[in-house]
Design goal:
By secondary structure, the chain is mainly alpha-helical. The protein contains four helices and two strands; from the N terminus they run ααββαα. It has helices at about 25-45, 50-70, 75-90, 100-125, and strands at about 70, 75. Strands 1-2 form a two-stranded antiparallel sheet. Strand 1 and strand 2 form a beta hairpin. InterPro entries: Uncharacterised_PrgI (IPR024414).
């Protein structure tokens, strides 16, 4: 009798659309073909078949990477964006800061004290007669 293993984590399962490929893979492979084939046919006569094929592969490689590469369940563009943010956009030193609940209570107590003082001073003044 044949046994089939069923994964317990169903979040990693992706729905296949056609040819056992996901929609993302189909779009990226289609874009690679749309870029690579015209480049091959345009450069085949002037540069030779081998050079044209090499140029086609190099032009299609980024699309293949975007289609297939995943790290920790995240696609390549997310990984690249996070890398750029960490290395170039965010500050190098990020000091540890906490949201101190005690400090918030002290600030609220000071504000309450100020409000009570204002209300108390208002009650001391005699009312004006019109």
């Amino acid at each position: 009798m044949a046994y089939v293993t069923v994964p317990k984590d169903l979040t990693k399962i992706k729905s296949k659309v056609m040819f056992n490929l996901t929609k993302r893979q189909l779009i990226c492979f289609g874009a690679a073909v749309a870029i690579g084939l015209p480049l091959f046919f345009l450069t085949k006569d002037s540069a030779g078949t081998t050079t044209a094929a090499l140029c086609m592969v190099l032009a299609m490689l980024p699309m293949f990477l975007f289609a297939m590469y995943e790290k920790n369940g995240q696609p390549l563009e997310i990984v690249i964006r996070q890398f750029v943010e960490v290395k170039f956009l965010r500050p190098k030193e990020r000091p540890y800061q906490t949201n101190n609940f005690y400090a918030a209570l002290v600030r609220q107590q000071q504000l309450d004290k100020e409000v009570r003082a204002i209300v108390k001073r208002k009650g001391e003044h005699p009312k004006r007669k019109a």
